[in-house]
């Protein structure tokens, strides 16, 4: 019995149900340092109500978490964010946003399992926090694109300079984005899908 006295168990909301035309589902992870916009990206682009595991930041994080550039941030992801977007009638992406603080990175291994690709969100005020993120993806063989999130006070650099600073090969796409805008976040995902397709065509995607 449910709370309304019915013998039926309520199912998912109509808007949350997987499209009946879907034939393929791909797991994508969205990674980056603390406060770069991972939760915002998942929330802006997801076609279903996103699942978040945000908790209020406490005194315990002082001196432990690097919140440079995010001093006004009052909540943080402690496990993952989850969303879903339909790219075509047949293709659906499942989006998993990772926690940004280094003390929660032990959760990343599970989130990376089965991921076909990744988006690395970058804040140009804190490029150095991206090195470990990209290194972990490379260790696990997860292809990725780099998305430079727009912050009002963040310096802007030519793509060539960013590529050199991040020590990225010419083949890895770097794009500008504003994760608050659904269209911009979707463009990032489409860039990733095109990149994965190109790797598959050359036999580089295993």
Automatic annotation (TrEMBL):
Source organism phylogeny: Bacteria, Bacillati, Actinomycetota, Actinomycetes, Kitasatosporales
Family statement:
Belongs to the GPN-loop GTPase family.
* Keywords carried by this UniProt record: GTP-binding, Hydrolase, Nucleotide-binding
| InterPro entries cross-referenced by the UniProt entry | Gliding_Motility_GTPase, Gpn, P-loop_NTPase
Record protein name field: ATP/GTP-binding protein
Keyword GTP-binding included in the entry's annotation: yes
Q: Signal peptide span per the entry?
A: none
Q: Source species, please?
A: Streptomyces althioticus subsp. attaecolombicae
Annotated stretches, region: Disordered: 1-20
Q: Which Pfam families match?
A: ATP_bind_1
